[in-house]
């Protein structure tokens, strides 16, 4: 398990405030939601947890994961664009997709008032202890790697295992996410969206991380597949005893995935509390709008049989 604490987080890019004075906490084994409309700053908070903000970002505040200080408020020189040079060019490219699809991996952001931990610490956290499930699995997965290669990549980068040991773990994870082992030799474009996201979940969980960041993991999926993916992810997280931050713009998804949540608007937390309470009686206009949108299509219904 891993607790997460964010205090006084501020992020600005190009002089424009993106996140303002955000406090957020996740207890050991807790599933917490972060909900807001597009552009509210949700994904920037997720990237700040991983040390993956754009190099031009200016930030302050503190972030702690477990006993590790990820971001401290102490003044320090920024290390623009420092990258981890371990592994082959192909593996580093695939690792970048695993960590942040379509964006280069940055160790620290440009700032005068806060400093990230060193890159070795951040890389170890991202590889071993923190797993990330992304919004669009088609973009997050490497198109030239097979499913087995993709899922095994974190093991190759961070653990000294034999090829047979990696293959065994990959097969076990395929079983857990409900995919046939025959899928191991296929490529992402040969899979449905739901199957691709199951591969993304398997990749995120292959190292048995203590903390999961799910950044809009169901947005690109149809409603029935959304339910299946949410139920699968929450079940695996609970079975592993891990903590999770689930990011979305949809309260109907959040109700199924979390027990407590924060409502974000224009980079600020405007409301927080038990997810069921906020869904039943939101008190701020921002939360009321999100709840009204969720009521048009809810996932909080019995499962339906479907084939991906």
UniProtKB/TrEMBL annotation:
Residues 72-113 are annotated as: Disordered. The keyword Hydrolase does not apply. Keywords: ATP-binding, Cell inner membrane, Cell membrane, Membrane, Nucleotide-binding, Translocase, Transport. Residues 4-291 form the ABC transporter domain. It is a peripheral membrane protein. Its main location: membrane. One of its GO terms (cellular component) is plasma membrane. Coiled coil: none annotated. It holds the Pfam family ABC_tran. InterPro entries: AAA+_ATPase, ABC_Ni/Peptide_Import, ABC_transporter-like_ATP-bd, ABC_transporter-like_CS, P-loop_NTPase. It is found in: Cell membrane. The keyword Lipid biosynthesis does not apply. CDD domains: ABC_NikE_OppD_transporters. Residues 76-106 have a biased composition (Basic and acidic residues). GO terms for molecular function: ATP binding; ATP hydrolysis activity. Belongs to the ABC transporter superfamily. This is Peptide ABC transporter ATP-binding protein. It comes from Bifidobacterium longum subsp. longum (strain JDM301). The lineage of its organism: Bacteria, Bacillati, Actinomycetota, Actinomycetes, Bifidobacteriales.
